[in-house]
Amino acid sequence: MQVSDILRLKGQALYTITPEDSLADAARLMADEDIGSLVVLSHGRVVGMLTFREVIQAVVRNGGQFGGASVYRVMDSGPLICTPATELDEVRRMMLSHHARYLPVIENRELVGVVSFHDVAKAVVDSQDFENGLLKAYIRDWPAEDGQSGPGVS
Questions:
Q1: Alpha-carbon distance 56 to 74, whole Å?
Q2: Listing from the earlier edge strand, what are the strands of the sheet with 37-42?
Q3: What angle (nearest 5°) sits at the alpha carbon of residue 8, between those of residues 40 and 86?
Q4: Which residue has the higher pLDDT, 104 or 13?
Q5: Taking the model in full, what pTM does it have?
């Protein structure tokens, strides 16, 4: 399974912000849309990632206030990225080893989506459920030997 498979099922919703926007506006957008991340774009290019982690850390550093902080001051300016062709196993390894919850998906230097840890976990569970269903159907339809009706019949 590849990232493109997840994006196809997930849909096309993308939430972005610019580095110049205020942190308060970013937090408001994240709360309004019930999302955990925003891709930071400048002139159509990905320049960073802002997640609830960076927002909370900035607010705590500022005594519980947003102050006048801009997205640029708190964003992750070097986020991990992947492409639509990246294999799901590789995305899992990247997310686990770097404690990343969100990865921008880039194709031809353009943002085409974001995959979250939740998206990856859901894809894995759905895939395992499908395989389990196939295995159960195979076992149920096991060919009988010597007039017996399935595996384990004495």
A1: 10
A2: 16-17, 37-42, 45-51
A3: 70
A4: 104
A5: 0.80
Q: What angle do CA 6, 11, 17 make, to 5 degrees?
A: 105
Q: Which domains does the chain have, with CATH numbers?
A: 3-140 (3.10.580.10)
The amino acid sitting at 109 is R
Rounded Cα distance between 84 and 67, Å, is: 38
Residue 64, CA distances (Å) to 7, 58, 70 in order: 36, 8, 15
- Rg, the chain, Cα only: 22
pLDDT tens digits for range 20-66: 999 999 999 999 999 999 999 999 999 999 999 999 999 999 999 99
